From TrEMBL:
Species of provenance: Streptomyces hyderabadensis
Domain of life: Bacteria
Composition bias, Polar residues: 108-118
Protein name per Swiss-Prot or TrEMBL: Secreted protein
Region called Disordered, residue ranges: 89-118
Classification lineage: Bacteria, Bacillati, Actinomycetota, Actinomycetes, Kitasatosporales
Bias type Basic and acidic residues, positions: 92-104
Length: 118
């Protein structure tokens, strides 16, 4: 009699366990549950992609700043600046206002005839 009761109890426990397992799986396979699971996975993937993209952008920015500093050093843009200004440049030709040859009549030299262009 004890054996029958043991096997009966074991069968009931196995039936309850199997029913619970099947019901959980059926709830997971409903359309609402599938949509929620897909949405959660999409959010997780989006978060991971965004984190990696932000990390990549920060790496690019750091490397860009480093390369810019290297180029500035190579071009001498980071060299200390002296307090002196460069010497003033002189004109190649200095006009003499007293010389009649240097006085130019603007009307005769720069006359414009609109028919000359055609």
């Amino acid at each position: 009699m004890f054996r029958r009761t043991f096997w009966f109890g074991t069968g009931v426990a196995a039936g309850v366990w199997a029913t619970t397992k099947v019901n959980r799986k059926l709830k997971q396979l409903t359309p609402d549950s599938l949509a929620a699971t897909a949405a959660n996975k999409a959010l997780d993937v989006g978060t991971r992609v965004r984190d990696r993209a932000v990390g990549f952008a920060l790496d690019v920015r750091d490397n860009m700043a480093q390369r810019e500093a290297e180029l500035d050093d190579a071009l001498g843009l980071n060299a200390p600046v002296d307090g002196e200004l460069p010497a003033p440049r002189h004109r190649a030709a200095i006009e003499n206002r007293n010389d009649p040859k240097s006085v130019v009549d603007v009307r005769t030299t720069y006359s414009y005839n609109r028919n000359e262009d055609h």
